[in-house]
Amino acid sequence: MALSRIASSTHASNLLKPLSAALSIRRVISSDSTDPLTIETSLPFISHKCDAPPRAVDTSASELFSFFRDMATMRRMEIAADSLYKAKLIRGFCHLYDGQEAVAIGMEAAITKKDAIITAYRDHCIFIGRGGTLLEVFGELMGRICGGSKGKGGSMHFYRKQTNFFGGHGIVGAQIPLGCGLAFAQRYSKEENVTFTLYGDGAANQGQLFEALNMAALWDLPAILVCENNHYGMGTAEWRAAKNPAYYKRGDYVPGLKVDGMDVLAVKQACKFAKEHALKNGPLILEMDTYRYHGHSMSDPGSTYRTRDEISGVRQERDPIERVRKLLLAHDIASEKELKDIEKQVRKDVDDAIAKAKECPMPDPSELFTNVYVKGLGVESFGADRKEVRATLP
Amino acid sequence: MATLFQGVGAVTPFSASSSLDSNKLLLPSRKSLSISDSRGSIFVYRSDALNLKAATRKQDLLIPNAVATKGETSTSAKSGHELLLFEALHEGLEEEMERDPRVCVMGEDVGHYGGSYKVTKGLAEKYGDLRVLDTPIAENSFTGMGIGAAMTGLRPIVEGMNMGFLLLAFNQISNNCGMLHYTSGGQFTIPIVIRGPGGVGRQLGAEHSQRLESYFQSIPGIQMVACSTPYNAKGLMKAAIRSENPVILFEHVLLYNLKERIPDEEYVLSLEEAEMVRPGEHITILTYSRMRYHVMQAAKTLVNKGYDPEVIDIRSLKPFDLYTIGCSVKKTHRVLIVEECMRTGGIGASLTAAITENFHDYLDAPIVCLSSQDVPTPYAGTLEEWTVVQPAQIVSAVEQLCQ
């Protein structure tokens, strides 16, 4: 699908070539080119107890193109989830990630699928980044069996074992020790992989974070703790919750880096740097300065603790997708029309996935009791008339 | 005795065909069982296939007599080796660590110190500091770390220095340990073992005498077992480590120095089975952990008074072995539960409900549950004695029930 879309855009660019030549706008790079392109991040990195990585990021036209497409998919998916929630097809809690897509995409660009990612409940887009499909997302959100966790987890419990995405956790901060455990397992099995443990500015005040940080630093675990600082812990602004809101510094003995989380290239550079650092020197904290347009969850309007001007201001100046769009246009990798076509295609994909997910059935009532225990040692809810006493060991 | 010897790997066909019928197992002494004539029903297996043939040959040489005659120089009467309960745990743990390189231990002072109850003594020197990990005092985080490691396939054993400290890790145990297999739709298994000593000790004070089985029992997705003898301690430890489910193994502070003779051969017990300690006819006494010994002490008095109690050590606190319990209730029609948990919301309360729901028709008298008083455990020795169930109370309860 991806390749055909790039191919179609080059077809279009071939057609447009004489036109653009006539208009004396030369197409500099084609959108499927993998030639290295160096672009500077808009803001410098600020570091704590380490050397900041350079601002010049190595990327390529095709990578930027894929950034645009993937971020547009995520954005469209979250907006669609918003309408589905209002239509009461998604119930319970729904925490949307729009505005923060650059963090998910930039991270994926810097690492492999063997590296582990674990996050909290704002996990729909990270799941997509790790290879989840739109159908699995919408299926799970609507509680159908085609969902990633067969409809039994919900919005806050997306997991993907084969690409090392460990979820999806509802309790604030509880995923941080888990992330250290993942890093411990990586060190134990001597794999050259790292774990990215994501948490928010609200969770940054949890004790378990500092306990886990202490252990990770003590044993040089390849754990990278990423604080997705969207400046609001639900309704409480960061300066009202934290004495020291410079989260990248709060690791004290653990080095930290502050990154512009709305700039996908900065995120990519920081994550690449972090991976190299963690494999050699142990844990690192990355603070991603990002923003969420929606409220904390669908039950939070998001405007009682911040002004609409602030939200629209960020949307105009720092929106991650707009930034990439400007880059693509400035470097002549794609035209306005191509990008609009992609957005249309994305919209269609999302609508198709939703339609397919709506047709999917709900789990069967017998599924209530599956996956509570792992079979193999005869564990079931025993009744009085149980005839089988034995269990066979693996 | 409904204990089970189970084989490893290729033995599966054998164990399926043999059925240790609980009716057959009314042998009071376990020593005779190990050399019993039911040759087909016991399979003790060496862990490596090379000794397969040796093991079967040894079995053929077993003496079929149930009673060891004096003057015999056979090894049968003196088979096995004597050790203390904590040594049995240590043996089980070491055997499993030897068998599977993914098994690791983490906890406070388990490594260099050798474990506060010496269960992990010598393991750090043998397996290294990463495999037997000394953690800082951060129960919530190192339990979470164990669970995260278990998600990737490692098999950690998290030791709480005292079960009471694991209350700090309750969130991790309840939400992550118990529920991840379910909420991920079966993608992740959490083969973790969380163990530690609990229970009322000798004047340890309120906070160090907690019985957490009542708090953990309603967490879906976990299994709970309580060991009471060196024999079942080793077997349950091994079974818990091999289980793909999260298991909480409850040990008792006062039982660590119990001495018993256990078999030399490798054995693993079933996590969901109860143990028939003393078969009887008049009343079923259900108990676990330290209270087993109070019950056995009371049983001596009761036998002298002419009663014939059937004592079952339930061992598996979650899920209950309702089969064994049900068969017993069917026979005796009277139930007494003796536990160390608090009265409110304890294991006894759940067991009473389960038995009433399932076996109401078989009961001739209401179920009596003797549990500890709903008070923080006092320091003073006499008061502490009064919080826990004593043999005299058990005797009078049985007398009352059997009227």
From TrEMBL, chain A:
Dehydrogenase E1 component domain: which residues? 69-365
| Catalytic function, reaction form | N(6)-[(R)-lipoyl]-L-lysyl-[protein] + pyruvate + H(+) = N(6)-[(R)-S(8)-acetyldihydrolipoyl]-L-lysyl-[protein] + CO2
User: GO:BP terms for this protein?
Assistant: pyruvate decarboxylation to acetyl-CoA
Tell me yes or no: is Coiled coil among this UniProt entry's keywords.
no
Q: Where is the composition biased (Basic and acidic residues)?
A: 306-316
This enzyme's EC code(s): 1.2.4.1
Q: Which cofactors is this protein said to need?
A: thiamine diphosphate
List the Gene3D superfamilies hit by this protein, alphabetically. Answer: 3.40.50.970
Alphabetically sorted, this entry's keywords are: Oxidoreductase, Pyruvate, Thiamine pyrophosphate
Chain positions covered by the region annotation Disordered: 297-316
Q: Which GO terms describe its molecular function?
A: pyruvate dehydrogenase (acetyl-transferring) activity
Report the domain of life of the source organism. Answer: Eukaryota
Q: Which InterPro entries match?
A: DH_E1, PDH_E1_Alpha_Subunit, Pyrv_DH_E1_asu_subgrp-y, THDP-binding
Enzyme class (EC, first level): oxidoreductase
Which SUPFAM superfamilies does its entry note?
Thiamin diphosphate-binding fold (THDP-binding)
Check the record and name the NCBIfam families matching this protein.
Answer: PDH_E1_alph_y
Q: What does this protein do?
A: The pyruvate dehydrogenase complex catalyzes the overall conversion of pyruvate to acetyl-CoA and CO(2). It contains multiple copies of three enzymatic components: pyruvate dehydrogenase (E1), dihydrolipoamide acetyltransferase (E2) and lipoamide dehydrogenase (E3).
Q: How does it assemble?
A: Tetramer of 2 alpha and 2 beta subunits.
Q: What is this protein called?
A: Pyruvate dehydrogenase E1 component subunit alpha
Q: Which source organism?
A: Arachis hypogaea (Peanut)
Biological classification of the source: Eukaryota, Viridiplantae, Streptophyta, Embryophyta, Tracheophyta
